[in-house]
Design a protein that fits this description.
about 350 residues, alpha/beta, Rossmann fold, seven-stranded parallel beta sheet, three-stranded mixed beta sheet, 14 helices, about 15% strand, binds nicotinamide-adenine-dinucleotide, binds thymidine-5'-diphosphate
Length: about 350
């Protein structure tokens, strides 16, 4: 079996659902259930004997050691993290605690467990740490995409904490020989993404006639990958990746933010039957830029393609269509996660005036 951390979050939910759709290998999901964790995402697995949920913190070494001893997993896939850049600007403490201290405690518990394993379980064991392209910092417009050897130059407390955790994972490989793998993926999108991130926020706001807040001039570039393509890459890295190695994961889909917002507006326009003759683009509102905003990310995914024969299955056009449709079909899911805490966050990050000054239909 495998132990997945952060399995109630966006990528984790997709990873577990996809894993159990493809194999019968049991998954233990260790998740603290922060605001970003949502067990509703995994409700289709209730009663499935291949799935066990444990509520807890990756930083609780006693708990993690107990789970490792009890379940004897052949791999740990570490997806647990604080993941939102804007929240890391308002409140970095949780990022340091989970992404750095938590990853360290998890790693150390895994090291002790792994050391006591007999062969061949010891050689076959893997610790897969899921990281981000944001650790490399911002790229100039004409610079080549990030390769695995690009220097680390994180800009936000989020990316700095992820970079720190990557260094710790690499140190455990070099110092202790723990068979680790690190993946750095570009921006994901798809079902179950919390509507604080660009794509689901824009869809949710558009559907309720609220402003679509674009930071700065909207020309910043992200490299987008459909979440199930990320999941298939993680499975492939787990299966065939070489311990101690890093793999960049991306879909060769660089897009300026404003183009993403326009695409969402167009797709909604096509799909939503409305008596209001919605012009979603009129909701676009340029707001104050994010401090330290990275202008461009781009992933060079040649290594994973060449060495592990992995390629994404979706184009951006097919992936974004599926995504918009999923949010249209699951408006109850959106409503359920837009709780009191969510509204407080929206008020904190986007000044009230953004919402008050725009003509909301
Ligand atoms: P998310 O915020 O949606 O989910 C994170 C999950 O981790 C939640 O279920 C939360 O409850 C859980 N969690 C948080 N702190 C925890 C702790 N201390 N112990 C146990 N569980 C804890 O994040 P996501 O978008 O699914 O990202 C998952 C991972 O992938 C993160 O490491 C992130 O850095 C990385 N990543 C994300 C993207 C992206 O575009 N979303 C891209 C590249 C890499
Ligand atoms: P986000 O989804 O927060 O991911 P990240 O910052 O980790 O790349 O943001 C994606 C891009 O969209 C980023 O350049 C910031 C921008 N953005 C907006 O313009 N408005 C918003 O309300 C949000 C949340 C993001």
């Amino acid at each position: 079996m495998i132990l997945v951390t952060g399995g109630a979050g966006f990528i984790g939910s997709n990873f577990i659902l996809d894993w159990l759709a493809q194999s019968d290998e049991t998954v233990i999901n260790l998740d603290k259930l922060t605001y970003a964790g949502n067990l509703q995402n995994l409700v289709s697995l209730s009663g499935d004997s291949r799935y066990h949920f444990v509520r807890g913190d990756i930083g609780n070494q006693e708990l993690v050691s107990g789970l490792l001893a009890q379940y004897q997993p052949r791999a740990v896939v570490n997806l647990a993290a604080e993941s939102h850049v804007d929240r890391s600007i308002h409140g970095p403490e949780a990022f340091i605690q989970t992404n750095i201290v938590g990853t360290f405690r998890l790693l150390d518990a895994v090291r002790v467990y792994w050391l006591a394993l007999d062969e061949p379980a010891k050689s076959n064991f893997r610790f897969l740490h899921v990281s981000t392209d944001e650790v490399f910092g911002s790229l100039e417009a004409d610079a080549p995409a990030f390769t695995e050897t690009h220097r680390y130059q994180p800009s936000s407390p989020y990316s700095a904490s992820k970079a720190s955790s990557d260094h710790l994972v690499n140190a455990y490989y070099k110092t202790h020989g723990l068979p680790t793998l690190v993946t750095s993926c570009s921006n994901n999108y798809g079902p179950y993404q919390f509507p604080e991130k660009l794509i689901p926020l824009m869809i949710a706001n558009a559907l309720s006639g609220k402003p679509l807040p674009v930071y700065g001039d909207g020309r910043q570039i992200r490299d987008w990958l459909y979440v199930l393509d990320h999941c298939s890459a993680l499975r492939r890295v787990l299966e065939a990746g070489k311990p101690g190695e890093a793999y960049n994961i991306g879909g060769w889909n660089e897009k300026p933010n404003i183009d993403i917002v326009h695409t969402i507006c167009t797709l909604l326009q096509e799909s939503v039957e409305t008596s209001r003759s919605a012009d979603y683009r009129s909701l676009i509102t340029y707001v104050t830029d994010r401090p330290g905003h990275d202008t461009r990310y781009a992933i060079d995914a040649q290594k994973i393609e060449r060495e592990l024969n992995w390629k994404p299955g979706e184009t951006f056009e097919s992936g974004i269509r599926k995504t918009v449709q999923w949010y249209l079909d699951n408006q109850g899911w959106i409503a359920n996660v837009q709780t009191g805490d969510y509204r407080l966050w929206i008020e904190k990050n986007y000044t009230r005036s953004v919402y008050e000054n725009t003509a909301v239909r």
